[in-house]
Amino acid sequence: MALNNLRVFFFLAMVVCAAHAGKPAPKGKEEKADSAAAPSGAAGGGDSSDISKLGAKGDGKTDSSKALNDAWATACGKEGPQTLMIPKGDYLTGPLNFTGPCKGSVTIQLDGNLLGTTDLGQYKRNWIEINHVDNLVITGKGTLDGQGKQVWDSNKCAQKYDCKILPNSLVLDYVNNGTVSGITLLNAKFFHMNVFQCKGMMIKDVTITAPGDSPNTDGIHIGDSSKVTITGTTIGTGDDCISIGPGSTEINITGVTCGPGHGISVGSLGRYKDEKDVTDINVKDCTLKKTSNGVRIKSYEDAASKLTASKLHYENIAMEDVQNPVIIDMKYCPNKICTKNGASKVTIKDVTFKNITGTSATPEAVSLLCSDKLPCTGVTMDNIKVEYKGTNNKTMAVCQNAKGSATGCLKELACF
Ligand SMILES: *[C@@H]1O[C@H](CO)[C@@H](O)[C@H](O)[C@H]1NC(C)=O
Ligand SMILES: *[C@@H]1O[C@H](CO)[C@@H](O)[C@H](O)[C@H]1NC(C)=O
Ligand SMILES: *[C@@H]1O[C@H](CO)[C@@H](O)[C@H](O)[C@H]1NC(C)=O
Ligand SMILES: *[C@@H]1O[C@H](CO)[C@@H](O)[C@H](O)[C@H]1NC(C)=O
Ligand SMILES: *[C@@H]1O[C@H](CO)[C@@H](O)[C@H](O)[C@H]1NC(C)=O
């Protein structure tokens, strides 16, 4: 699983890089905003563009992409607060391209459900792409249904390194001060939400659901972003519930329930050149249920980048039957992707695990697998009480090259 995930990230990153390579800087784009905005003029008037008045049909069959893209152009092209209304109903769409900058601030009111077409030929990259938009709000009780079930079979990333990446559901690129609240993301073809180069994002009361065996259906991936808060959110998918990639700073995750899935992960770190540091990550008041990892930090053994992950704080985390409840893995090195030469260039320091309780599905409740050349430093273990449920073995910690202090932990879990 880790291997697949890895390969996928490699290609995803290439795709993202390619996608951004020819993109003008945000400033350049702003100057072109006026001519780029092309209001359709057909909106229902006022400050609201209602897709049902622009030709969308909520019958689950009629392609409503044009109505949605037109509604976006209208809402984005007007000054002041604007609403793009998606009323109750099931609207089938192909790729949606919501690009800014916008003249005012746009709220997407999602009361109905959007269904992403299963005709893969229609997608260039992702399903719903939101680009260069400030003060965006996406809210409502509706659902973004990626309809992945019908296409997961065509995900060959487990077998093929050079695989085609299926469309991510909701992609936020260069979105500042945005909010996503209340909505459900269901059965994405690939990642459910990808947050890239965003500053100031609130993701609140969101539900993300896909089967535990669906391939690469990460809940929320964050990369090169700062001040992102995820709160009151329930995620159960076939891959990481939340993954925090390079360049992420000031990320707060609270009140998240995760499972099934691969847990809440920082990483993978160090795979690509020029990765930026990860710092100020707070994960608090979260529950992990039957996941393969609980809280995980992973980096490549022979990292391409020299970078530091620091000030990672995990507090009040409840584990229910988690396979690797607490894990730092600096020896991540799936075959063929890296060499096991132990020359890590990733530094991991100032990590606090505080009040981590519950049950482990394997004897090794704590694994701190740090590199001999770059040990993990400043690791604080405070009140870690996670017990192996089985009767054939005892609870244990595996501690390699980690330095720090422990207080109030189960004695078999204290690495120091
Ligand atoms: C989205 O729209 C913007 C602006 O109209 C355009 O520059 C960009 O190429 C489009 N992206 C895709 C994936 O179609
Ligand atoms: C985002 O919000 C912060 C705090 O309110 C503000 O300082 C910043 O200018 C805003 N950024 C944008 C791009 O609107
Ligand atoms: C994240 O939480 C920390 C600690 O509670 C707080 O100091 C910080 O302001 C929060 N950051 C954001 C972006 O909300
Ligand atoms: C420890 O965390 C659990 C939730 O995982 C919480 O219910 C409990 O109150 C916390 N204990 C302390 C002392 O904060
Ligand atoms: C207990 O678990 C450890 C670590 O997984 C393993 O090495 C060992 O063989 C196990 N012992 C028994 C008796 O199963």
Automatic annotation (TrEMBL):
Hey, what's the signal peptide range on this chain?
A: 1-21
Per the UniProt entry, what is one GO biological process?
A: cell wall organization
Q: Does the keyword Metal-binding apply?
A: no
Which EC class is the enzyme in? hydrolase
Top-level division of the source organism's lineage: Eukaryota
Region of interest: Disordered: 23-62
EC number(s) reported in the record: 3.2.1.67
Q: Where in the cell is it found?
A: Secreted, Cell wall
Q: Which reaction does it catalyse?
A: [(1->4)-alpha-D-galacturonosyl](n) + H2O = alpha-D-galacturonate + [(1->4)-alpha-D-galacturonosyl](n-1)
Single GO molecular-function term?
A: polygalacturonase activity
Pfam families from the xrefs? Glyco_hydro_28
**Active site: residue positions:** H262
What InterPro entries is this protein classified in?
Answer: Glyco_hydro_28, PbH1, Pectin_lyas_fold, Pectin_lyase_fold/virulence
- UniProt keyword terms in alphabetical order: Cell wall, Cell wall biogenesis/degradation, Disulfide bond, Glycoprotein, Glycosidase, Hydrolase, Repeat, Secreted, Signal
Stored PANTHER family: PTHR31375
**Per its database record, what is this protein's job?**
May function in depolymerizing pectin during pollen development, germination, and tube growth. Acts as an exo-polygalacturonase.
Identification of the protein by name? Exopolygalacturonase
The gene designation is: LOC101754741
